[in-house]
Predict the structure.
Amino acid sequence: MKLIVGLGNPENKYAGTRHNVGFFLVDKIQEKYAFPSFEFKKNFQAEISKGQIDGIEILLVKPQTFMNLSGVAAQAILSFYKLTPDDLLIIHDDLDIALGKFKLATNSSSAGHNGVQNIIDQLGTQKFRRLRIGIGQSAEDANDCRLATAHDFVLGKFSADEMTTISDISEEIFREIESFILV
């Protein structure tokens, strides 16, 4: 079994924000592979969808603890299913990567991402895979006083063009996920 956790914040007001790109992508995985609808599981404090990709059982997870406590759900699920961090893939936003790009990381620090840091703290290790999805500001946006802080930027909504860019890289992301599953 493999665990794919998309990071984001619950509540409708966060839907479509850059910080919720992890939720968006696990929703895309759920659609592409025809997984059942997500269901809230109180004991995990997460929405879960369970299915198979290439004959391997997969749990798609959207923690409902808010971003900064994402590790609570990840740890609870890993413990319940007796999985290890090797079975875990976290999908999250990364402000330091340009929009439309992504990077796979293993055994790396949180680089200031509070949701990832909480997972590291809860698991007691940073030796898990992360799919870092670029949401980085353009030079023009970075100079725009309305986007004065990283906090405001990540909690801002994707524009229609930005959503198209994220959707356009989905197939590449699916290939990375399939590689993770087959490891």
